[in-house]
Design brief:
The protein is α+β, with helices and mostly antiparallel strands and about 110 residues long. The chain has a single domain, classed as Orthogonal Bundle (Arc Repressor Mutant, subunit A). It contains 4 helices and 3 strands. The chain has a 3-stranded antiparallel β-sheet with strand order 1-3-2. Helix 2 packs across helix 4. The protein is globular, with a radius of gyration of 14 Å.
């Protein structure tokens, strides 16, 4: 395996997302569908996943067993045409050391 294999990287990412989402849905039936609804409810047009996640949990969405499930939420929302990627910004979570992450914009308002 090539250390810089983009295709394998994407397969690994998607496999991890699916496992996290499946686990969340196993523990909390309908969690993914409910999380998707929170994107539509989110009061701002642009967001980073960490902002959406915090707002959603503050407003009643149960926590998934693993926060990686949020990758599945934005992936599905993008596939459904609810959001689009518009750039990157540094996360504010101190544990993430300011790493760059996607900025999303709601579409089809």
């Amino acid at each position: 395996m090539n250390e810089l294999d983009k295709e394998q990287t994407e397969v690994n990412r998607d496999t991890g997302i699916k496992l996290a989402v499946d686990n969340a849905c196993e523990k909390e039936c309908g969690w993914l569908d409910e999380a998707i609804k929170y994107i539509a409810k989110y009061p701002f047009d642009t967001f980073m996943t960490e902002e959406l996640r915090i707002w959603s949990h503050t407003n009643g969405l149960p926590y998934p067993p693993n926060s990686r499930a949020w990758g599945g939420v934005v992936k599905v929302a993008k596939e459904k045409g609810m959001i689009k990627h518009i750039g990157y910004n540094n996360v504010r979570n101190p544990k993430a050391h300011g790493t760059p992450a996607s900025v999303w914009e709601k579409i089809g308002k």
